[in-house]
Design brief:
Layout: H1 2-25, E1 94-101, E2 110-116, E3 126-131, E4 137-142, H2 147-150, E5 153-158, E6 167-175, E7 178-187, E8 190-193, E9 195-196, E10 199-200, E11 203-207, E12 211-218, E13 228-236, E14 242-253, E15 256-268
Parallel strand pairs: 9-15
Antiparallel strand pairs: 1-2, 2-3, 3-4, 5-6, 6-7, 7-8, 7-11, 9-10, 11-12, 12-13, 13-14, 14-15
The chain binds calcium ion (3 copies).
Length: 287
């Protein structure tokens, strides 16, 4: 019984709805409907905002550091002296003089010493020594008896024949109103006492009433390089004003002074040319 009543109610409701809808259709033409349509279009303002913000990417610099550690093998340097021989002064050297001469012409000034050892009043106690800039040295015993009284002194070098090597003068003795001067060269790392007429040079420079003697360096071609050595001496003839003069030109070759020109002159004191003797000493030859 309940099932039939629940179905019947929706049917009755549907029927009533249909009846009502048909009633509205009958009155549609009697009540016109006015429809006003107002369309207002308000456009939204167009705002274009362009905002460009560029943020650069951070730059990162990568520095690569490479550390190279090189371990070198130890280097053993062997220093070879330019010349054999001892270039050092002996501990008992005394009364010394110091000079310089480029005896080998290599551009470095080598050291020239003159000194005494022991008792300088006894023979063979005076020495000349060259100490080479490149190492090594040479020592020469000065046996001139005059050295016992005057001592030995060495001067700076001078190139006597323009070959680029310097020789040097040393005072090796003294006499009455005169100095005794030797010329020294270095050949094959050894000091050589330059010879003249086969004997060690003992040039006399001095003058007295009755005689004079000396030597000059000659630059024959005037190129600022010495060429020859002129050794001269004059002897007064009696009580006159006349002198017998000997002037000999020498060339230095291999440790020897070899005669180039020899002149025997008779000259009178005060005569033109007389005073040229002794007028120009060799450089570094006076003491
Ligand atoms: Ca030198
Ligand atoms: Ca020379
Ligand atoms: Ca010259």
């Amino acid at each position: 019984m309940n099932l039939h009543r629940s179905v019947l109610i929706p049917v009755l409701v549907t029927f009533a709805f249909i009846t009502f809808a048909c009633g509205d259709d009958d009155s549609a033409g009697e009540d016109p409907t006015t429809t006003t349509t107002s369309t207002t279009t308000t456009e939204a303002p167009t705002t274009t905002t362009t905002s460009t913000t560029t943020t650069p990417a951070p730059t990162t610099t990568v520095v690569e550091t490479t550390t190279t550690t090189t371990t070198e093998a130890p280097t053993t340097t062997t220093v070879t002296n330019q010349c054999p021989g001892d270039g050092a002064l002996p501990p008992d050297a005394q009364f010394g003089t110091l000079a310089g001469a480029d005896v080998d012409g290599d551009g470095d000034v080598d050291t020239v010493h003159a000194y005494a050892t022991g008792d300088p009043g006894t023979p063979n106690q005076w020495w000349l020594q060259v100490s080479f800039m490149g190492g090594g040295g040479s020592t020469y015993a000065v046996d001139n008896p005059g050295a016992l009284l005057s001592g030995v002194r060495a001067n700076d070098g001078v190139d006597l024949q323009g070959d680029g090597t310097e020789e040097f003068f040393a005072k090796i003795g003294a006499g009455a109103s005169a100095e005794i001067i030797g010329i020294f060269d270095v050949i094959d790392c050894e000091i050589v006492h330059v010879t003249i007429d086969g004997a060690p040079t003992e040039l006399t420079r001095g003058a007295s009433i009755g005689n004079f003697s000396g030597f000059e360096c000659l630059d024959i071609d005037l190129n600022d390089a010495n060429d020859f050595i002129l050794v001269y001496s004059g002897q007064r003839l009696g009580d006159s004003d006349d002198f017998e003069v000997t002037a000999i030109q020498y060339a230095l070759q291999n440790g020897e002074l070899n005669v180039i020109v020899a002149d025997g002159l008779g000259m009178t004191e005060g005569q033109p040319g007389f005073m040229e003797f002794g007028g120009e000493d060799c450089p570094n030859s006076t003491f």
